[in-house]
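Hi U.,

Before I forget, here's the chain from the pilot set. I'm dumping it here mostly so it's searchable later in email.
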Amino acid sequence: MRPRLQVPTSQHLFIVLTLLALTLFTPSPGTAREDLAERCRQDLAQRTSSPLEGIRVVQRRDVLFPDAALGLPRPGEVAASVQTPGQVLVLKVGQTSHLYVGSDRTFRYGGPLGAWRHSALFLQEIPDEPNLNGRLVQTSLVGTNPRVVLVGVSDFAPQRDGSLLAIRRTSRSSHDLLYLAPGEEGPGRRLHSTFAVLHPVLNPDGTRWAALERPRVGGGWVLITSSLKASPESTRRFALPEGTRPGDLVWEEGGPVLRAAGSDRKRFWRLTDLEGEGTWQELQSFASPEKRDLMLNKSESLKVIQVPDEPKVQVARVWFNGDARVLATVAQLQMTEFSYPPSPDFVVVSGRWQDEPRAVAVDVQTGQVLSLPASHQGPTRLWMAPPAGRERLEGWLKPQAP
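Structure:
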């Protein structure tokens, strides 16, 4: 018996046409790679306001990302923990190299490579926390790779050696001063407990600490100091110069320097003889650390300026004769503070934008502005410690053996 001829139904015809279209129009792996590179080039041109023809792909490597966030997760993001094949690319515009990661579906910007030397810290609110403490969160300077550093702190002071001093409110009438060593993880070590503490700081070689303390309700402020290796009970107290109200505290080679508050001019006092009775010496001239650190060279310094009567912040290079070149302008920002490393390459500016917290990192060389996550409790500050994921990034960018 001869078989009957089967006429394709509309459903069969749709399947055939779909398979044919997939065969004809699915890009080859090489095409997908070039498409990813082109999308990254166009994105960087827009971010840096640079001509597309001046942007080059100088490095690319196939990698297996640990998750769907392509190794650059954002705060609050829940990414599938599934290994994702893709590429790491380095694009160069001018003298600055920029990081990108991508897959067949999407790509992400990782910022200037130099930004991965530092990180940002901010406090995140803990709902219903009885002492109003928060989580101290670290991110990269492009706001990725979040990591909780400490839980239950109310203020923090990143130090130049990559260590961290933090304050924990333990009740309405008590605070702990905590220390986290460079590269250390954990709950932090308690250095001191008191009624109130302000402006903790380490000495230049990172062996001693000092802070301003109010030991009891209604009491006056004193300076406290001790060795990092000593027990909390060995802390020493020094009364402040008579009639002086505490402002800021820094530690120079000669000893802790107090910047007095409330006078018609800035007054600075240095405490010497820390092992003895302690002696305050008023300094007739004192170049504050900010002024020294913001000197870029013999002729130029860096200034972060709140534009008068405007919610606008400018970062500028200023010559010795007063001439200035504005590197970046952040509109609608009312600055509360800024922070930076010695010989600054990035500046973190923190403030309010339309009554909401906002922080940005500014590249001192190029003027590029990088957005950081909003802080729910206080400012965002620069930390001279690399963010989570930097070691993995270095592994991706390490030249492969031939």
